[in-house]
Amino acid sequence: MKKRYVFLGVLVAAVAAGYYFMPSLETIVQKVVHKYGSEITGTDVNLKGFKLSLTNGEGTISEITVANPKNYSSPYIFQLGEISVKVNIKSLTTDTIIIDKIAVSKPIITYEMLSLTQNNISEIQKNVAKNTASAEKQETAAAEKTDTEKTESSKKVIIRELTVEGGEVVAVANINGKANNLKVALPKIVMKNIGENNKKANIAATISKVINTILATASKTVVEGQLADVKGIAQENLNNVVGSVKDRVKELGIFGK
User: Fold this and answer.
1) Domains of the chain: which residue ranges?
2) Which of 132, 192, 220, 232 is the most buried (most CB within 10 A)?
3) What's the rounded Cα separation, in Å, for the pair 128 and 36?
């Protein structure tokens, strides 16, 4: 009888721990994604929900959105709706967090042109390059501190495999107040062992690498897959540009001869 009560006590304690720990874990992950994502992209990054099993490390992320820079009509550059993850639970308490798998399904990426030379993807890529360099300096400073002073920014992150599939790129040519939309499928993206051979692969550096790869693929897909249509839209708007500006753009050879 005594053993029975002991077992029930342990069970109740486990349930209580799960009840209190899981909401706090979700909050922690949301804050980490928002903090580092926003710092790297220079725009607002939010995670809607996160659930993780403490027994097998499998979890789901309901939605991640990455806002566009200012002056763009589309609210988001990224909309990642279905994400499954597999985490090495034991690694969470070590200096190296290991994520065995991240699978992103059906993301929507918006490629928006404000002018012939200005678009949201290139702006975010510039932000990522600048802000990642800053984050790496902070990482170096954190590494020099004592163990008690170190923060999550000094933790190394390794992603064994990341896949992105079933995605779509929406190309928006928003020039001179006229919006034209084109849609093209995003090729499947597979990345392996991200951060494994990089001593500076902290959270910021790992997020940066993932974002850059997805953005570069999206940009290349639009340019190569719908190049004629994008040029046509830009050319139509170019015809509305007056005098010397129009001649100067043509001299630069943007559309070829």
Assistant:
1) 2-224
2) 132
3) 11
